[in-house]
Structures are given as C-alpha cells and as structure tokens.
Description:
This protein is 47% helix and 14% strand. It is α+β, with helices and mostly antiparallel strands.
Amino acid sequence: FRxxxxxxxxxxxxxxxxxxxxxxxxxxxxxxFLDFLFPFGRQEHARDLNFTGFRHESRLEPIYNGLSIQExxxxxxxxxxxxxxxxxxxxxxxxxxxxxxxxxxxxxxLDVETGNAFWIILxxxxxxxxxxxxxxxxxxxxxxxxxxxxxxxxxxxxxATHLIICDWCGEDWRWYISYLEESLxxxxxxxxxxxxxxxxxxxxxxxxxxxxxxxxxxxxxEKKSMRSSKVCKSEKGLQEPPLRAQSDPLAxxxxxxxxxLNTIYSQNGSKNPTKFKFADLQQxxxxxxxxxxxxxxxxxxxxxLADLKAHYESIFQSxxxxxxxxxxxxRDIERFNLRVGSVINDLQMQRARTxxxxxxxxxxxxxxxxxxxFQSMEASKILALKAQESTENMEVMTxxxxxxxxxxxxETVSMRIITLVTLFFLPxxxxxxxxxxxxxxFQTDDNGQSQRxxxxxxxxxxxxxxxxxxxTTFAAWYGVYWWCDRQEExxxxxxxxxxxxxxxxxxxxxxxxxxxxRTVSLGQNAACVSCLAMAxxxxxxxxxxxxxxxxxxxxxxxxxxDPDTEARRRAFxxxxxxKKYLEADDGEKLEDILDELFPNDQQPDSKTLLDKYVAVFCxxxxxxxGPAISILIxxxxxxxxxxxxxxxxxxxxxxxxxxxxFYHNFxxxxxxxxxxxxxxxxxxxxxxxxxxxxxxxKQIATGGSAFLYEIRIHPAYNKLLSDGDTLCNTFALxxxxxxxxxxxxESETDxxxxxxxxxxxxxxxxxxxxxxxxSYNVILEFADKGSLEKYFRTVPPPREYEDIxxxxxxxxxxxxxxxxxxxxxLHSPKGESKALNxxxxxxxxxxxxxVSNGATSPxxxxxxxxxxxxxxxxxxxxxxxxxxxxxxxxxxTYGKSSLLAVKQNVDIWSFGCVLSExxxxxxxxWEGVSRYRQERSQATQHISPRLGDCFHDSQTVLPIxxxxxxxxxxxxxxxxDTVTPLILKIVTEDMLxxxxxxxxxxxxxxxxxxx
Length: 1011
C-alpha cells in the first residue's frame, strides 16, 4: 500500500515530482491514473471537482501479457485498474457550511499468478488509510500481506479493500442532503404561510409623511383586518374545522387571521422574519448549486461502482481467468457484487432524494420570485398613489397660477387705461406748466371780496395749442406701434415666400443651361443641387413623409448573423411591404408624399416609381433628400442597380454642394433597403457587410469542420422552395470556418448539385449555397427531429409489430440514398450514356437526419442521409463497375479504413455498423447502445488505441460484435419482433464482411430487404 496525503485536497501532496516518477515507473502504473492524480494539488478553487471515471487493463490473455520479472514477483499476468470516487464529509473549515465534498483516487494491480497486489490511494486526510489498517488488523489479514500469500487470499483482500472505499463513497450523503433540505426549508418555509392575494384599498388615505413600503403596508393593515372581521361575521353560521397549533408555520390560518403580505412589516418597525429579500434568492441558488453538484456526484459514483462490478464479473467469465481462482473465489465475488449493488442502490435512493429536492427548490424559487414581484408591484402602487397626489397638488397650483395670470392680465389692461389717461392729460399739463396760462383766476379785491376772472383769450390759446399736441402724441404712439408690427409681419411673410419659391420654381436641367436664378444644372457627369432645393419641405404635424418614415421604423426586421449575441442584429426593411404601404388606398399615400416633396405639381410618375424605384425612394427619404428621386428616375438609377460602389459614384448621381456626405450616406443606408433574395439553387457571394434576410438563427450542432444552425428566413425573401413544396421558412444552415473550409464547401455543394437531378427522397434537401466573408454556407432542409444519434437517445424502442416494421422500413430506405450516390445517370450532348459513381465515406448515426413530415408516431419518421462534405465522384462508362477512390477518412467508428484506396461498398460496411447499433437499440434502448460501444472500445484497447469503438480489429469483425448479433440481441427480443433477426442476418452475411467482394451493393441490399 502507498498512501499519498496532503494537508487538504487543495494543497500540495506530501511527495515530490521525483518521488512520484520513481513510484509510478517502478510499479509500471497505468498512464490513465494521471487523470485522477491531476485534480489534487495546490489550487485556490476546486479544480476538476466533477471529474471521475473508471479505467482498467486486463493482461490475462497470453498475447497481452506484460513483462515477466520473477525476481520482483511479477508474472506478467495481472489485473490493473484505477478510479476516482467522491463523498461528503463533515468539515469545520467554513462555519456557515459544515460539509465538504472530498475525493479519493485509487490505483490497484493484482498479479493472478504470484498473488502480489499493489495499491496507491490519494486522499487529503488519512481516513481511508486508517479504515484499511483497522479492517486488516481486525480480520488478521494484514499479516498475510507481509508473508507468502495465495491467489485466493490476495483476491479476497483486494475485494475487501474495494468494499472499504465503496462504503466510504456511499455514506454521509443522507445527512448532507438532509442539511440541504433543512437549509431550503429555513429560507423558504415562510413563503408557504404568507397570504399575498389580498388587494390594497383602491382609495387609501393620503399619507402624511414620507412613503415607504413598511409605513404604507402598515397603514392598510388595519383596513384589511376590518374587512376580514366582517367576512368572519357574515359566515358565522358556517362550521369551521379545528385549528392547528399556531406554532406550525405551515398550518393553514383561519379566515380573518391570515398573515397577509401587506402586514409582514410591523408598524413599530420591529424585525419580522417573513420579510423577504433578494439575498434569500442568492442563498436558495447556493443550495440549488450544491444539490446539482450532489446529483452529478451520485450519478458518477454509481457509474464507477457499476463499472467496477461489471469488470470483475467479466474477468471471472473470461476463459483466460485461472480456473482455481474462479472456483475458490466464487463466494467472495458474489459477496462483493451484493455489497457493491447495495451501495449502488443506496446511491440511487439518495439520487432520487436529490432530484426531488431540486424540484422543490425550483418551485420555492418560483414562489419567492412571485412574492418579491408582488412586493415590488405593491410598492409601485404606493409610489403611483404618491405621484397621483403630487399631480393633484400641481394641478391645484396650476389653477392658482392661471387665476394669477388672469389677474395680471386685468391689471395690465388697467395700466393701459392709466397710460392712455396720462397721455390725455400730459399735453395740457405740459402747456399749463410751461406757459402758466390763467384761464380762470380767483383773487381778492381791496374790500376783501373774492372775485373770479375768466379770460376767453387764455382759453382759446390753451385749446389751440393743447389739442393739436394731444392728437399729435396719440398719432405718434399709434404710428410707432403700427410700424413695429408691420415690420414683424413683413419679415415673416418674406421668409415664407422665399421658402415657397425655392420648392415652387426649382427645375433640373440636364443640358447645363440655366433657366432661372434657382435653376439646378446637371452636367454630363454630375449634378450640382442647391442645398435649399435638396432640403425636405417644411413639415407640419400631419406630414405624410414623417408618417412614412415612422412606419419604416416600426416595420423593420432584424437580421441575425450571430446566435450568441444581440449586438450582431442589424435592421433591414422588406421592400415589398414598403411598396404595399405606398400602393395603399389606390396609391394615395404615395401621391400625398409626392405632393409634399413637389408642391408645384412637377412630380415624377408614381407608376414608374412603384415599379423600379421603391428602395431608392426610401433611401432618399431616410437621409433627407427626397426631391432627388426625380434625378435618379431620369438617370435610370433604379433598385436593380443597387448596391452602388461607395468608392465610385455612378454617372448622373446628384451632388449637394453643402452636404459632402450625401453619396456616402446613401451607400450606407442602401444595405438596409436591399437585402438579397434567397433563391432556389443559389450560388452567390456576399460582402461581409451585406445584410441577409435571416431573422432567426440558433446553433443546434457542431462538428470537426462545420457548425450547424437552425435559421428562419424572412418570408418576403424566401424563394428557396420549388413549386409544390410546403411553404416553410425554416432551414438548416451548415457553416464551414476551418482552414479547410473551402475544400469541404466545394466538395459538398458539388455533390449536392450532382445529386439534385436524381431527386432522391432519402437525401436531405439542398437549396443553395453562399459565401460571406470567411464563412462558407450551405442551405439544407431542416430536420426537425435531429439526427439518428439523438433519436436513439430520446425515443424508446417500439414494441408493437406494426411500429417495428415501420421503423426498419424507414431506416433501410437510406439504402435508396446510397444507391443514388453510387450510381447517377448522365447523358452527354452526343447522346453517349455515362454513369457518375460516388462515395459518401461518412455514414454514421450523426449524419442520418430525422424528419417528422407531420407524422405523430416517432416510428413513422423519415430518415435522410446528409453531410456530403467527404463524398466524391468519378465518371465511368455505363454498365462498368466502379473502381476505387482515395480514402478520405470519415468517422473511424463506422469506417473500414484503408491505406491505399476504398471501394464503394465501404459505405455498405458503415451502414451495416449503423444497422447493428439500431438492432441493439431495438432490444436494449440507448443504455444498450452505450454498453455496446463501451465493450467495442474495451475490445480494441489492447490492439491499437486509435481504433476506439470501431467494429473491426483492422482486419476482421470484432468477436464482441458477433457475440451481440448471435447471442445477446436474440435473447432479449420481444415476442412480436420477428424482423430484427432477419436484419441482423443481412448485416452479418452481406454487409460486415472483411472481404470487399463479400458485401452486396446498395441496390442489391434494397432488393433483398424488400423481399
């Protein structure tokens, strides 16, 4: 035993690099053990915490025996394995979280001849070491380890050690999950007790102090309680059920005594445990993260234990295992299987608890979200009431201001009257003061008598001078007032006349002759347009141009070039919809816009504009140069000539002397109004800035050379479907971006175009291709049910005879596609008949797509062959057999590779492999397919690592494949399935033949299946 420890799992191991190198080299440890070693070591955060697995090597067969060194007790016949397990252990490192996930990595080798066993155990602490030592000390087995041991004792002790580690990985999960459940209940228990459905009083009293959630909620609590009391009194005659103890927070409250959300904040501001915060959601999210971590670890542990159990079962069933070992250790193996099975069952039970906990967490989170949203909504209501109160106060203040304005107006009138009176008396006062004329004079004579003396001459003189001066003053005041008002009126009229004359008298001449002071001349190559003439007319509140521009803004669509970010969405306007807008009401909308642009009735022909100039017209309106449409129509710069080159202005395009960016702005906006049509069998190249009418795009798969997206094309630009096709705007887009993208792209598009003539229903539909920037794109039929690989994962095997027949007929129809690829009829202009022979070379479940075509049963879906990126074709005379082609090295699992060349029936081998997995799925479902692949991988591991989970050993079919075909699958077939054995017979006899001549051609296979 070699134990490697550290202060904890995130610190350095107590071993240097040299020590580890010596240890691993001396004992010839499996290289794959390093995968379980690397998660240990110094790290701030846990690294590869969720990584686990089981690796093994068996050297029992003579051809796989290792090096025999008798001096070291090594016979070369040994079992090697390594694995990693995790468990939950109490921890005091973090006071708030009393649990921690700990991992243990194990390496074990056992020599079946000498009985020598070797262990390496990695764990942060010495818990496993102590348990192993205590176990052997208690059973007395530790002494045997030090002396001469027999095979049975060595194997028994190895199994006992495995059980110690297996028991460790299954314990304490119950308490850790209980801790998570209690944490969830602690944070969310009150969400089930608080009633939130009682509405606020729609006419509350106005708060007299600052509005807060607590204060307002308290204000409504009393009214709500009064309403609840009335309800209770009205239902006094009803018999209520006995109340539960009030200490139970989840017990239902009697009517009238519920704790409503509006009363969860006490009036005195005291702390209330039912006050929910956003921090509660964060705590619940932490619990959910840990529960997800537990679920993954439980599944991983169960998988590792199942692999460990299956490994020992396969060893004892192997014909190369020593018979005496099988005989003597049979009971030990049975006991080991029972114990490990018990641990797996316990892990599955805890997994079910964790799954239930995760569902509960999701429900509680949704409930808490709802409560928080309700709190926010109620707070918004209170703020709205406060805002309404403020608005009412402002309305009162506005009325007061209006009254004040009225009074000010009255006072202004009074001041004018006073001014007039002052002007009336001002001349007389001035004359009386200056001239001191006495019209009536009172004086006392010598006798003391008062006398009045009236002077008619003085009165005449006063009137003669005062009246003219008073009239002159009034006339002068009125004259000045009239003159100022007249100047303002003249100035305003002059501005209006000038603007009207600009748009009424502007003409455009192509000859260069000036026809007026504001005539715009067009030379042979360019036009010089006055800035006033190119300006938009003055728009009123009912401007038709503004209405149209607003309609364009509201009805624009968005092109999506990148499914991962919203920032890559670019707007474009469907021109057909803009044309419908302008044609509405028998073209009145367009006429109204032209009337605003050309008030002198010198308008361009509306029919011509609608036929070929809608996009150009929209661009000019968008950049504020609408009247220039008459020039573009005269020069025939119509929509079909878009896009204009930004570096080369076309002849006849108008120029604005004051707007040097006129043409630049036009070129920038033209992309918005000129998205390209996607036509059937298109082969185009777009610049990187071109806006494409792809309104939705999401990635559905990725491979070694390409990305696959589901796209939706705007209906106005979708011309991909042929006549008779069902109208659909959803397609699959295959995008190549690798350095070899151009080669794959050319190969696949060339193959699809050649196969298009055959119109095979079992080949995925091809609609066209295009290049844009550094991406190469192929537009294909969208398979709404994914690939055959996904079909195996998600659809259960059929059990009814009719469903079994439908499935096999649908899958075997892929042979029609292979027949089409292998033989295509060509007719030359001379009448000579030739054949085009092709190779697919990448037939696999991921390249067989599934289309529902409206079928309700998954067993009636249609299977279609796709991905022709590795296919190629050669021409031969009709009737001649196809030759060989260079191996393009498709997916190795389903291929029969060759260093030199391959024949067409390499596709038959690949399809036979697919049918073999389909037969396994038919009997054991996806779990059986996974096991089938794993066993093939194990069978080729000692032959060549590069073979992976393929079906051959570089020469012949793997024995494990034949074992599944002849024994395992027939034993588990349902009684109604009489077809699968026939399929397996065809696969074994006519498809999976190592000799090329032994495989039937695709057409022959289809004929045999049809029979």
